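Async update (no meeting this week)

Hi team, since we skipped the sync, here's where things stand on the single-chain job. The sequence we agreed to prioritize is pasted below, unchanged from the tracker. I ran it this morning and attached the output directly underneath so nobody has to dig for it. Comments welcome in thread, and please keep replies under the output.
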Amino acid sequence: MRSETQGSKPLPVADGDFYMLARTLSKEDNDLRLKVREFMEREVQPVINGYWERDEFPFELLPKVKALGIAGLPFEGYGCPGRSTMLMGILMMEIARVDASFSTFFGVHTGLAMGSIHVCGSEEQKQRWLPPMARMDMIGSFGLTEPAVGSGTGGGLTTTCRRDGDGWILNGQKKWIGNATWGDLTVIWARDVADDQVKGFVVENKKNPGFHVEKILHKMALRVVQNGLITLTDCRVPEADRLQKANSFRDTAQVLRQSRAAVAWESVGCATGAYEHALRYAQKREQFGRPIAGFQLVQDLLSRMLGNITSTQAMCHRLSQMQDEGIMRDEHASMAKSVCTVRMRETVGWAREVLGANGILLDEHIGRFVADAEALYSYEGTREMNTLIVGKAITGFSAFV
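Output:
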């Protein structure tokens, strides 16, 4: 397949799949990948810059997202597709290749909210919540981070829960909670004042008078994601809505392990989108009488970008194999998350450099990728926190304070 021409010679299409990762998929899986790619290119790409600039979410696209049938993709039963985590990772990459905000919205719903219920919920809770979430009739969010507690969530949550008769009372705040301003339920993680352990609760946002959320404004990244500041004021939750298998932060960490693997794929997608836009630009942008794609320094930048993308694709591919085999550990997911986001940040910066001053224009898309990369770099555990997880595993010593 070829794109524009240079004289009579057709130019290569901008394609970040240099080592032909798509060929490792079955026909059925690749067909779904192409279906998702077509949706992102035809429906999301033409409108996303406007929504990003206005700090809004394209709600009119939700019916078409539902029709893709990919929510809860790797989960078996409960109305979920039951496909591989490998395919889920590749779809996250495809979505982020067009827009990281859209992949974040989807990842929060499928990976964090549905993942929390799938990993930590009882059978009754899975039967109650996962089917409508798989249909995307209910949209979920994930409330772990707090205004004053980010990296220290493992031992320093200030949101509390206490048993009160046949229910629980939650008090505190959660910050940066994607989908919370308009979604239907939020998984809230809180510290039990009785035993000082972290527990999880499913709070149905619109039905609980103790749950209040306000939209976070003035963001410079992931502007399409509607992040909320949640305030819980004597928020009563029945025991039936407490995640029955979430009794310590170790249980929370099981969810984070899965989501960090997904964010690694997402960051590869973000880098890929920036690279492909930069390559197409370089093929048509002329300086000194010829396209800048023909200059050595530009080719060097593009080759470096593609090297980053290809190496992180390979890392994520192996990580997903390990995940599907049931042998992926925390340190494996943490290494991928930290390495892939560093390489992404480097890659989108080089893409901006290829475009020169035009790289900061939203019209050229690159500026959106550069800004959104900053959020992916930080959420689901900063680079430093993830390296400490790896460091503990390889040295036998914990450097956490």
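Quick observations from my side:
The domain at 140-249 is CATH 2.40.110.10 (Butyryl-CoA Dehydrogenase, subunit A; domain 2).
The mean pLDDT is 95.
Reply here if anything looks off.
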